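Annotators were shown the component list below and the corresponding predicted structure, then asked to write short factual statements about the assembly.
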Amino acid sequence: MVLKEISHWIRDLGVRLPEPFRCGCGLTHRVPIRSLLFGRGVIDEVQRTIEGLGVRVLVVADPTTKRIAGESVIEALSANGARVEESIVSEPTVDESYRLSEALVGRDLAVAVGGGSVIDVCKLASKIADIPYVAVPTTLSHDGVVSPTASLIGTDSVKRSILCNPPVGVLFDSDILENQPRRMISAGCADILAKATSLKDWELGRDAVNERYCELTARVVKTSLDSLVDSLRMGNFDIAVLCRSILLSGVAMALMGSSRPCSGSEHLIAHRLEASKQKNALHGELVGLGTIMMSKYHEVENEGWWEDAKLSHESILSILRGLKVPTSREELGISTESIVNALMTARDLRPDRFTILHKRPLNLRDAESLVRETVG
Ligand SMILES: [Zn+2]
Ligand SMILES: [Zn+2]
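Structure shown to annotators:
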């Protein structure tokens, strides 16, 4: 087993863990992560992430993730003297989080083993029950593993982002994560490439409407983006790179207590498309499509766009093609009409979150030509 304590991935950038610290941006940031492990077979070391947090543990999984990693986690915890029970979650809903929060009563902490849905249900349940949780991701198809926000379906059937807390510990087991479906890894990479546009949208908010902006957080996000782009361009990608980028992206959101640094116009477009029946596409794939269009739009309309050629629209497009994520609306089965509509109405989803779509709203003709030029 190769085991690595990886807190330095964050500390080296100037972020303190887990105690609060004052920042030049005027905020007191707090990222409550106490333990971060990466390596082969690292789930056998789960005990290390819960030291000092108590022994009454609820392991949360779904039937698949229980088989992939949940059983090993339960075994490892039990062997080390923890009193472990398990709870299986079925759907990413607010109701499910309330049900789970009742199962958490009398427990010291939760360990969420799974992809986005399990971790998101556990995030909100832990917040309601006011106990900490550890995340053990089995897939990395988006950057929500470490973030403080949960994306859950409410009683009105609408998916919303709910502010909760980041995990107190994360275990990235490379044996498990290397074996996730390729499509998941590619979607996760696309969600990180989206930082090229989300960071520029945040800068526009700072410059146009005096929005709070944190240089430290922006540096964390840029490092997340750069390290992934560099490794994909050089053809030496390995799963550690994606783990690090996803971790940094989650930490950035924890620093700001908001998804703002990592979610800009490209995410607004993806959310519009998600709301309109794109059930089969992964979040990262829709975000990738949004990033293709918005990197082009920024490049033309925003004089502050990246000068570095590796972050040009063309370069982003070519990286996404290399990842084999869908890069045209046709591959995703989206009509021109829906995508044009998403471009024109995405900004209404978040009038408060200034982006290039707020600065330069697209009219019908311009939206149609942007779609034609970029995603067909
Ligand atoms: Zn995302
Ligand atoms: Zn700051």
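Statements collected:
1. The chain has 16 helices and eleven strands.
2. The two ends are 47 Å apart (CA to CA).
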